[in-house]
Amino acid sequence: MGKIVNYISRLNNIEYQRDNQFFSFIFLINHSSQIIMKKIKTFYLTILFGCILFTGAHSQVTYNSTDFADVDDNFMVSKANSGQLLFYDFQQTGADHVWLYDTLSANTQKYQTYIDPDNSGYKNFWIMDCTAGGGGAMWCNNAWNDTTNLCMISEDTLVIGPLSLSNIASLYKKNPQVLEKSITGMTVGFGSLPIKMITNYISADTIFKFPMQYLNNDSVNSAYNIDFNSIGVDIIIKNNQIRVNYVEGWGSLSTPYKTYSSVLKMKTLIYHNDSVFLYGTPTPPNQTVDVIYQWFDPAFGISVLTVEGKIAGSTETYSSASYIDSVRCLQPNAYFAYIPLVPYLNENGNADVTFTNLSNNSDIYDWDFGDGSTSVQTNPTHTFTSAGTFPVQLVAANSVCSPYLYDTLIIPIVVKNPVQNITVDLKVFLEGAFNGTDMNTSLNSGYLLPLMQPYNVTPWLYPGTETVPSIPNSNIVDWILVEFRDAADAASATAVTRIARQAGFLLNNGSIVGTDGISPLVLSVSVTYNLFAIVWHNNHLGVISASPLTEAGGIYSHDFTTGSAQAYGNVNAHKQLAADKWGMFSGDGDASNTVNTTDKTVVWKPNAGKNGYLNADFNRNGQVNNHDKNDKWLPNQGKSCQVP
Question: pTM value?
Answer without folding.
Answer: 0.61
